[in-house]
């Protein structure tokens, strides 16, 4: 649960007069859904990421669901995903009747490890879904090689990665299609919302049919679809927010660098690893605190600084946990298990002031100092250990 009493919050979405004016314009137009704002937002988001097509959805999760259906993935198929992600990456695979297969991650970026992906490919593998953790793209060259050799498509869960770049090119077209989310914890928001980008006109067509009841003409339904439409009010907000994206990313880059400067030499804490050839979005600022994470988290909350574990590993959720053999996960996902015990995300939203950045760093320094000074310096077993 978010700690609403915290002095410094993890997220602080900012919607102002421009967004209010855009919504007002839509309300007065009388077109509240299925209209020009959705067309424009999808296309403008696609243009920003150098993709041919952008199809809007009411949530990021429905966008993921549609993306998998548009690829023809269904029962009997396997999709390789990371476990250090929001649960929707894996549940969307279940929603289409397929099976998520968890692969291990790089210990510094928390993104899929191509070698672990390669080891999990079977004749049933129909896609690899990479997540750009914290908005920092993973080893997309390595994943493209593994996927190419196996003949399976790469898909991007780019939920946190609006505006991210890999070797100078925006994410969103490295896979056959890519999903972005606009919930309030993301860098730009429409309250709820998502978009799928693709360069394939047939995929774009299928996505539009899935979004709107498979309807090709008024009350003429060619295929099974859903109501996954984003409202015109939300799309109008999204267009304004998209215009603010680059400013938000620049500000977050400054905040993240300021935090790292203050925390880099702190013993017991590892600051987020920045890959030189990519541009991340600092959707999260995730440190590693092996052995002291839980005490540092509790101490920070006491000090009024909101911090959180983003994300408790999906393969340990009751929904997915294997009850037949507990030791298998640890053997198969050793890096994920280590990272899960040590990771902690600090506030990094774009509205933090310079004074608040200093306050966060001071609170972390104090908490880490207290945790490492205590004689019995290991955390109690976390819920993940108590199975
Ligand atoms: C936010 C998020 C999603 C889901 O998006 P919603 O818009 O909340 O449905 C999926 N994957 C990742 C990695 C996310 O961060």
UniProtKB/TrEMBL annotation:
GO terms for molecular function: transaminase activity. Its cofactor is pyridoxal 5'-phosphate. Coiled coil: none annotated. The keyword Transferase applies. Gene3D superfamilies: Aspartate Aminotransferase, domain 1 (3.90.1150.10), Type I PLP-dependent aspartate aminotransferase-like (Major domain) (3.40.640.10). Keywords: Aminotransferase, Pyridoxal phosphate, Transferase. SUPFAM superfamilies: PLP-dependent transferases. Belongs to the DegT/DnrJ/EryC1 family. L-glutamine:2-deoxy-scyllo-inosose/scyllo-inosose aminotransferase subfamily. This is DegT/DnrJ/EryC1/StrS family aminotransferase.
